[in-house]
Design brief:
The structure holds two protein chains of two kinds. In chain A, helix 12 packs across helix 20 and helix 19 packs antiparallel against helix 20. Chain A is built from 20 helices and twelve strands. In chain A, strands 1, 2, 3, 6, 11 and 12 form a six-stranded mixed β-sheet that branches. In chain A, strands 8-9-7-10 form a four-stranded mixed β-sheet. Chain A is globular, with a radius of gyration of 22 Å. Helix content of chain B is 71%, strand content 0%. The longest helix of chain B is centred in the first third of the chain and has 37 residues. Chain B starts with a helix and ends in an 8-residue tail after the last helix. At the A-B interface, helix 2, helix 3, helix 5, helix 6 and helix 19 of A face helix 3, helix 7, helix 9, helix 12 and helix 13 of B.
Chain lengths: 460, 334
């Protein structure tokens, strides 16, 4: 769950990718202000309102010239993403004058609850942000999403395996427009100062480098433990290293965690914790809020590296006094390989953003979605340098060198595992993050983390 | 609305003999027939309270009823509500270590608030009630934190309490470096750190209440007691505190309810962590209900929180506040 990331995000990244993190209520919190508000009543009321909310959308004409109105909810509430989507919608309207698109940008975290509410109501938006994984599967199982499998074959061929996170029960319920992977962002100067010549490629090298940095008086790794999901990146990634692709993929559907590889991932985490590489007080450190957040520590040279998503550089720039971040001192390297694991070398952990059509949406929704992910639009989106695009050939539009490295690693990865908290759905996923955070706080053993997910899966 | 209603009633009750014989100013005669006038009055009341009543029913009573209904189901907020599990959600909540811890945290905060904030605020209020230079400024300073929104308070203290933040640096500069702790990252300490922040924010409110209460204590009592040879402390003990009783009781009521429902500060500063060490019932409810999309379970937690607050509020009104409010409330006529 996030802190205030969105509050100080630079315009461009918070719009789409920086804002990928979810589950937070920081915006809600910022609005609420009284301790003495009748919390119980409000809480009750909020849960109820969540169930009965409303939204508006136009239903639908099917013939090509009948006027159609599409409602589109997306999370690019800041520029350049917001203007870009608006422009794309205008272009589509110009080419299809009978289709009017009501573009509604909504801040990421709010959008997540709004979508949940709207899908429960009678008038969900036709086209809306979709993060894929377990939550999407829940929506699909509840009969709220349109099955796109046979309608987007060309697009699927073009996007390739990046679209797999938007599948459930063997069907395609959404299409991504961006997919990034998690990796280490590091400060080249601090590495050099500690005598590290090349970034670590293996787990043991990572641990050794952490000691070198400590010896040089530098906090090796910054970690935003307050928000829990940064802790989970370590556990998730080590699971990708220790468990085979099949076990990983299977776990998102059968929630079977009996394979010993899960506990092994936890043991590697334990090994890392034993090396004490993290910033002081990392359990309470927010990920993206302020100069003393984990991203801020890296950006201000107070820590040497951080395991984060592709959105991190833009988060960092806003947390430095000059608004420039580390500039070209910033480097990126993929999560190190771990010996003895069943995962294929180069496999990655990542996630992205996409869109789904609601089940009642008119056919124009699918047609517009196809346009959104078409190579032509993708290329222009890539040029915004706010994230790795998914359509083949669109990568060329990206000019940011670090983003290019992320794209490179992604395209070499034999398999990209969706962030586990997304893949398992918010229910089990958040329980997992919570259990991992407890391991980081020293109150759960690797085996207890595994039992905690299994338990959460039972109550699913 | 209730206040206006009761004032009106009291007015009429105060003049019962005149009521049927002389029309109230600005009203038409209620003759003939007291029965019709009764009906008419009831209609009037119904007409005037109905907008407020409808809002109250739709936005307060109905949501509570619905939450109670949802709490009996296993429901993720998406599909149809058809997986009836009876009291399963309640059983699960009480078996969940994290929730039991959250309840404990709330009660620790209630206890600490009463034991620390009350005496502290009373002492400061007594000081600020004296004639002293810069009194208005001092009152303003103590009250200012209460005016700041809870979110801003949280962010402010988050910065102060960072490792090597303002507090740590100040302690070190004062030669108290050994007192430096991981204020928010230490699972054994975080709740008490939050309590200090809560106190900082809410003690001003208590002071204002007590100051207002102090104005109502007649000076003559103090003078008489002083003439009889009572010292300052005895006067405080036997005059000030007893006469401040109603104010203290109301303050305690607000504090207890506030501590039971504490949410914003905790959510922004720690998200209930690390490792659930600072969860309250409200943060637990939001986390399970919304973050984890367990709307049935979240509703059950909300109902529990509501029940605890309600039971407390009613018994407090019944047994503690009864004397204070007796004169202020009007009973229904006949």
């Amino acid at each position: 769950m996030t802190g205030f990331r969105r509050r100080r995000l630079p315009e461009h990244r918070s719009s789409t990718l920086g804002a990928r993190r979810y589950g937070s209520s920081s915006p809600r919190v910022l609005q609420a202000r009284h301790r003495y508000l009748t919390g119980a009543v409000l809480g009750v009321a909020a849960l109820v309102l969540a169930a009965g909310g409303c939204s508006s959308s136009g239903g639908g004409g099917s013939s090509s010239n009948e006027p159609v109105k599409l409602t589109w909810w997306h999370n690019a509430n800041n520029n350049p993403g917001r203007d870009f989507w608006k422009k794309v919608a205008d272009e589509y309207h110009a080419a299809h004058p009978n289709v009017t698109i009501d573009v509604v940008p909504i801040q990421n975290e709010q959008l997540r609850s709004k979508i949940a509410v709207a899908l429960q109501g009678q008038n969900p938006p036709d086209l809306f942000q979709q993060w894929g994984g377990g939550e999407m599967a829940d929506q699909a199982n509840a009969g709220k999403l349109m099955d796109l499998t046979d309608k987007v074959k060309t697009e699927l061929a073009n996007i390739g395996t990046a679209a797999s996170g938007w599948q459930a029960n063997g069907k395609q319920y959404g299409l991504p427009y961006t997919l990034g992977i998690v990796g280490f962002w590091y400060n080249k100067d601090l590495f050099a100062k500690a005598g590290i010549t090349s970034p670590p490629a293996t787990w043991d090298e990572l641990l050794a480098d952490a000691q070198k940095l400590k010896a040089a008086g530098i906090a090796p790794i910054s970690l935003g433990g307050r928000d829990r999901w940064p802790d989970a990146f370590y556990w998730d990634y080590l699971a990708v290293r220790m468990c085979s692709q099949q076990v990983m993929q299977q776990s998102a559907t059968d929630f079977n965690f009996s394979d010993p590889c899960w506990a092994q991932a936890g043991q590697k985490v334990q090994q890392l914790l034993g090396a004490q590489p993290f910033n002081k007080g990392f359990l309470a450190t927010p990920a993206q809020q302020g100069a003393t957040s984990s991203a801020g520590l890296l950006a201000n040279g107070k820590a040497a590296m951080e395991l984060q998503g592709h959105w991190n550089p833009s988060v960092m720039t806003s947390l430095t006094p000059n608004g420039k971040g580390l500039g070209d001192k910033l480097g990126w390297f993929p999560f190190p390989e771990v010996s003895g694991g069943a995962g294929t070398a180069g496999s990655a952990l990542g996630g992205g953003d996409g869109f789904s059509c609601s089940v009642k949406a008119p056919p124009a929704c699918v047609d517009f979605l196809k346009y959104l992910v078409s190579p032509e639009v993708q290329k222009r989106w890539a040029a915004l340098n706010i994230g790795p695009p998914v359509a083949k050939g669109a990568e060329a539009g990206v000019s940011d060198p670090n983003l290019r490295m992320v794209i490179d690693a992604r395209s070499k990865a034999p398999f990209v595992q969706l962030y586990l908290d997304i893949a398992y759905g918010s229910n089990v996923g958040q329980a997992l993050n919570d259990a991992i955070a407890q391991q980081f706080a020293g109150s759960k053993s690797p085996q207890q983390v595994v039992s905690a997910i299994a338990e959460a899966a039972k109550n699913r | 609305m209730t206040l206006a209603g009761s004032a009106d009633q009291r007015d009429e009750l105060g003049t019962p003999p005149d009521h049927t014989t002389r029309p109230a100013p600005g009203r038409s005669s209620t003759r003939p027939g007291a029965g019709r006038s009764q009906l008419r009055r009831r209609l009037e009341i119904a007409l005037f309270i109905s907008p407020a009543l409808v809002l109250y029913l739709v936005f307060v009573v109905l949501p509570i009823a619905l939450a109670a209904y949802y709490s009996l189901y296993h429901w993720n907020g998406l599909g149809p509500i058809n997986d009836f599990i009876g009291l399963g959600n309640y059983r699960r909540a009480f078996q969940d270590d994290a929730f039991r811890k959250a309840i404990t945290h709330n009660f620790i905060l209630v206890g600490l608030s009463l034991a620390v904030q009350g005496p502290l605020a009373l002492g400061l209020a007594l000081l600020l009630n004296r004639r002293l230079r810069g009194r208005a400024l001092l009152r303003l300073v103590t009250f200012a934190p209460y005016v700041i929104s809870e979110a801003i308070t949280a962010v402010l203290w988050l910065l102060i309490l960072q490792p090597d933040g303002l507090l740590d640096k100040t302690l070190q500069a004062a030669g108290l470096g050994s007192l430096v702790h991981l204020w928010l990252a230490d699972t054994g300490l975080v709740l008490y750190t939050l309590f200090v922040v809560i106190t900082w924010k809410y003690v001003g409110f208590a002071i204002i209440l007590f100051l207002a209460g102090l104005q109502g204590i007649p000076n003559e009592l103090h003078e008489a007691a002083a003439i009889d040879g009572a010292g300052e402390l005895r006067r405080i003990r036997h005059i000030t505190i007893p006469l401040l009783g109603p104010t203290i009781r109301i303050w305690a009521f607000l504090t207890i309810i506030g501590s039971l429902q504490l949410f914003d500060l905790v959510w922004i500063m720690t998200l209930g962590g690390p490792a659930n060490a600072s969860n309250t019932m409200a943060t637990y409810m939001i986390d399970r209900g919304f973050t984890r999309s367990q709307f049935g379970y979240g509703s059950a937690v909300a109902v529990i929180l509501f029940a605890i607050s309600l039971v407390f509020a009613i018994s407090y009104q019944r047994y503690v506040l009864r004397r204070d409010v007796e004169g202020a409330l009007t009973r229904m006529a006949g």
